[in-house]
Design brief:
- The protein is α/β, with parallel strands linked by helices.
- It has a single domain, classed as Alpha-Beta Barrel (TIM Barrel), CATH 3.20.20.70.
- Helices cover about 35% and strands about 30% of the residues.
- It has eleven helices and twelve strands.
- It has an eight-stranded parallel beta barrel, surrounded by six helices.
- The longest helix is centred in the first third of the chain and has 11 residues.
Length: about 250
């Protein structure tokens, strides 16, 4: 069985890491390069940097921040936010990213998924899906959770995979920042529908939440922010906890 991955997420605004609840009420959580260095040392498997206001402000992700973060890492770096074109993707990859994450741009122009996959390989293309429960289904939202799309999350994940995405980054808007646990029903629904890895995001609060999403949710990876940023649960301790409960983890840091 492949090892499960732990991914730390740095939500960046104006060059600083921020964190909110349900995509709202952002507060400062530190310097991105300093946090990246700490996670690299602690043994996190991957790091994701999301420029949370780039799309809303109609600009590219902050390239200087990406360069500073990438210089601290010997693990894969994924960057999202403000990537609307091949040129935008090329800029962040040139700045040090190994993967790019598309959300609003993929919804607006799905062909971009395929174009990027053909240029950089599917392993470098992540499609981020922000979903919210409504009327017995999972609605998709774009533009940092501010705009509802007509698509349904599971169907959109399947289309993204068919178009060449290498992974799905699946965030529950309902659980984001609440520390109430991942939405395992949402994660399992998508994981069962696609043949590519699914990264669960939104709601991490305790080590048991990770056990739940890897088992019940069938996630291939789990992404978290708050519990790592504020040093409530060290990465090394979390990996040992999960390994002791039968979750395969990479422990050779």
């Amino acid at each position: 069985m492949l090892a499960k991955r732990l991914i730390a997420c740095l939500d960046v605004r104006d060059g600083s890491v921020v964190k909110g609840v349900n995509f709202q009420g952002l507060r400062n959580a530190g310097d991105p390069a300093e946090l990246a260095a700490r996670y690299n040392e602690e043994g996190i498997d991957e790091l994701t940097v999301l420029d949370v206001t780039a799309t809303l402000e109609g600009r590219r992700a902050l390239l200087d921040t990406i360069r500073r973060v990438s210089q601290q890492l010997f693990i894969p770096l994924c960057v999202g936010g403000g990537i609307r074109s091949m040129d935008d993707a090329r800029a962040v990859i040139d700045a040090g990213a190994d993967k790019v994450s598309l959300n609003s741009a993929a919804l607006a122009q799905p062909a971009l998924i395929t174009a990027l996959a053909r240029t950089y390989g599917s392993q470098a293309v992540i499609v981020a899906i922000d979903a919210k429960r409504a009327h017995g289904t999972f609605e998709v939202f774009g533009r940092s959770g501010t705009t509802k799309d007509a698509r349904e999350a599971v169907a959109w994940a399947c289309e993204a995979a068919d178009r060449g995405a290498g992974e799905i980054l699946l965030t529950s808007i309902d659980r984001d920042g609440t520390r109430s646990g991942f939405d395992c029903e949402l994660t399992a629904a998508v994981s069962q529908a696609v043949q590519i890895p699914v990264i669960a995001s939104g709601g991490a609060g305790t080590p048991d939440h990770f056990v739940d999403v890897f088992s019940e949710g069938r996630a291939d990876a789990a992404l978290a922010a708050s519990i790592f940023h504020f040093s409530e649960h060290a990465v090394t301790d979390l990996k040992q906890f999960l390994s002791a409960r039968g979750i395969p983890m990479r422990l050779d840091w």
